[in-house]
Amino acid sequence: MKASEVLCTLKQRFPNEPEYHQAVSEVLGTIEEVYNEHPEFEKANLIERLCIPDRIFSFRVTWVDDKGQVRTNMGYRIQHNNAIGPYKGGIRFHSSVNLSILKFLAFEQTFKNSLTTLPMGGGKGGSDFSPRGKSNAEIMRFCQAFIMELWRHIGPDTDVPAGDIGVGGREVGYMYGMYKKLARENTGTFTGKGLEFGGSLIRPEATGYGNVYFLLQMLKTRNIDLKGKIVAVSGSGNVAQYTVEKLITMGAKVVTMSDSDGYIYDPDGIDSEKLDYIMELKNLHRGRIREYAEKYGVKYVAGARPWGEKCDIAMPSATQNEINGDDARVLLANGCLAVSEGANMPSTPEAIEEFQKAKILYAPGKAANAGGVSVSGLEMTQNAQKLSWTSEEVDQKLQNIMENIHEQCVKYGTQPDGYINYVKGANVAGFMKVAKAMMAQGIL
Ligand code: NDP
């Protein structure tokens, strides 16, 4: 089947999965050229096999809330592709979780993991459980119940989950604890673990730091200095927090952060002290970003995203499709010169088209946010070797990996006029490695 036909077929076979169609469409739109250069791929029906997950587990999760009521949620794990290594990808707890969202994430993860240069396949999982407003005890009971089903499908050499939206160090700890009790082994199986039980230094920071390292590489291609640049960041969770931390140390001025209720605009910039407050607010008290505006007397805009504020650089770090075509046009009109994605698929296809038409620096999440899974890969290596590297060692490896991913994007994405199409570069580089691995391993 031709690459262009695969999308039509997938839409018919898997209707009502718009995010999955969107992610597949973006990749297929950029790899057609290299695909056509390899007739053996078509003969092996490679694209269709690469787009459809190897398998999907779905299960009911039953847990008891603090009032003694018995509650149910759906749990899922998508094992998308393991041609280059064990399935690897995070777990998301959010009320919006469904198969379409997890299939898009697992598909993207396969290409991202391929780009990291580390031996990891792609997967993703999660639940429509919302951690918002839940007590610590409820979170623990839910995590344990989730793993009571999932544990039999994962393992250090088969499938290694990690965190994502709604799943941070606390949740990984509870899930891994239950996993170990059931599986009776102690070999890692989750990444993003606590430092005391096999976690890696720099893993919490990795996605945010990695995104800034990637941004620096992009800016270098145009001799632009990050120092003094005004940056709009969305989100205030793991990725956003460490993006802001690194941006501050690099001398940039971050003026926005957000959560699902709204955003804050701080014209003086969020400094280290204010960021400490946000980290405490979000990670310990589980509070709302509105409270920052109340504390520091700055603007808070409820129910909106920060893209209308003037900035030089935008770093979306909350969720999918959070920058639409209109947002993109406003960003461009305000002089935005670079967009580097911390979140997965935060820009709609229309927004991407606007950025590329304007020829600004635009990095898709699967390249720019690959630092997180890269350090997860390094955590797996440390666990296998039963040793721990220092922060400096891990940070240096992370910087090298982000540079390498940037180089691959330049190699495969540079257009005849010199413009670097990072979407094409990342997709082609990621695709070729997985495709070659699949071809070498036969029709499966
Ligand atoms: P967190 O749960 O730590 O933070 C998510 C942030 O985004 C919160 O501020 C949350 O607000 C906000 N948010 C979530 N959903 C929505 C929504 N529907 N609308 C508006 N705001 C929303 O997650 P992470 O920081 O880990 O993940 C953020 C993004 O980065 C995701 O796209 C994730 O897939 C991606 N990513 C994460 C990696 C990691 O290592 N953690 C690695 C690579 C990518 P609220 O608190 O109100 O829910």
Mean pLDDT, all residues: 97
- Amount of beta strand: 15-25%
Distance between the termini: 17 Å
> Largest beta sheet, briefly?
7 strands, mixed
The structural class is alpha/beta
Cα-atom Rg, whole angstroms? 21 Å
Bound molecules: NADPH dihydro-nicotinamide-adenine-dinucleotide phosphate
Into which percent range does the helicity of residues fall?
40-55%
Element-level helix/strand string: HHHHEEEHEHEHHEHEEHHEEHEHEHHHH
- Kindly report the spatial arrangement of strands forming the biggest sheet: 9-8-7-6-10-11-12
- Poorly predicted ranges: none
Number of helices: 17
Shape: globular
Strand segment tally = 12
Q: Can you describe what's shown?
A:
The protein is of the alpha/beta class. Helix 2 packs parallel to helix 5 (99-115) and helix 6 (136-150) packs across helix 7 (169-183). 51% of the residues are buried. Strand 7 and strand 8 (262-265) form a beta hairpin. The model has no long low-confidence stretch (mean pLDDT 97). The strands form two sheets. The chain has a seven-stranded mixed beta sheet, with helices on both faces. Strands 1-2-4-3-5 form a five-stranded mixed beta sheet. The protein has 17 helices and twelve strands.
